[in-house]
Amino acid sequence: MAEFALILPAAGQSRRFHDKAYKKPFAPLGGRAVWLHSAERFVNRPDVKQTIVVIAAEDRDLFKQRFGANIAILGLDLIDGGAERADSVQRALERLADGIDFVAVHDAARPCLTDQWIDQVFEAAQHDGAAVLATPVTATLKRADPKNRITETVRRDALWEAQTPQVFRRDLLIEAYAKRGKGPATDDAQLVERLGHPVTIVPCSPLNLKITTRDDLKLAEQVLKVLPRPKLEGFRNPFADDNLWR
Predict the structure, then answer these.
(1) Which of 89, 98, 55 has the alpha carbon at shortest distance from 164?
(2) Mean pLDDT across the stretch 215-232?
(3) CA–centroid distance for 115 within its chain
(4) What DSSP element (H or E) covers 136?
(5) Neighbouring C-beta atoms of residue 207, cutoff 10 Å
(6) Which of 133, 129, 151 lies closest to 142, judged by CA?
(7) Which residues of 90-113 are buried (b: 16+ CB within 10 A; e: fewer)?
(8) How far apart are CA 102 and CA 141, in angstroms?
(9) What is the pLDDT of residues 111-147, one digit of tens each?
């Protein structure tokens, strides 16, 4: 069996979330923090041998106060992130355990996963070396000038909206980050693409949404009601539902 590690970046500033008490990965969702919903889909899989949660250094003390029991019970590695998301992922790559074959990077603020979607993207990554979940673009897309006037209607044929998890052969992702340079990259797949390595798209669902605003949080709460719940071993933190961030 191939061995996987999960990197869960949660070190962003959540500027568009507009909540003075919570950054979006730590906001309550259905009785638990958003990031816990994301982590729990992976931690009890037999093929996931390591889970690394990346947080901002400024959040460490409060995070450990609120989620210390979860970290211990779920066997998570907690590290401080960098200035940008890519810096955070690169730091996590430096902490990979021996024997890890593949690395999955999943947004901490994308809590609405199913085991089936993870199975599919893991399988594709093992076959092709790199794979991402994505949904086909269905909306009409417009390109605009600086004054917000439409300059073009963009053909949506063969356009996909990338999601996470994005899963890569360990050596491939490490090489991609080593050669990332200073150019911007909006996701991990883009760095792998720059190496000339193909990345396979695994069709997924719009229900695998990423929380950006508080309205997204309300939508995610409804989505979780219709998705199958993960099977968890052990005990949860008895204080995990307390509003310690308020």
Answers:
(1) 89
(2) 84
(3) 15
(4) strand 130-136
(5) 17
(6) 151
(7) bbbbeebeeebbbbbbbbbbbbbb
(8) 35
(9) 999 999 999 999 999 999 999 999 999 999 999 999 9
> With respect to CATH, is domain 4-211+219-226 assigned 3.40.50.720?
no
Q: Do residues 99 and 3 make contact, with C-beta atoms less than 8 angstroms apart?
A: yes
Instruction: Name the token pair of 179.
Output: 């050669």
Runs of H (alpha helix) within the chain: 34-40, 60-74, 85-93, 115-128, 170-178, 188-194, 214-226
Cis peptide bond upstream of 238, omega within 30: no
Distance CA 208, CA 132 (A): 12
Distance CA 203, CA 163 (A): 10
Cα separation of 246 and 244, whole Å?
6
Q: How far apart are CA 53 and CA 50, in angstroms?
A: 10
pTM of the model: 0.89
DSSP-assigned letters across all residues of 192-225: HHHTT---EEEE--TTSPPP-SHHHHHHHHHHHH
Q: What is the separation of C-alpha 111 from the centre of its chain, rounded to a whole number of angstroms?
A: 8
Is residue 158 within 8 A of residue 181, CB to CB? The reply is no
CA–CA distance, 104 with 42 (Å, rounded to integer): 10
Q: How far apart are CA 96 and CA 88, in angstroms?
A: 13
Residue 15 CB neighbour total at 10 angstroms: 9
- Coil, strand or helix: which one is 244? coil
Of the two residues 227 and 99, the one the predictor is more confident about is: 99
In angstroms, how far apart are the furthest CA atoms of the chain? 56
Which tokens belong to 51? Answer: 């889970």
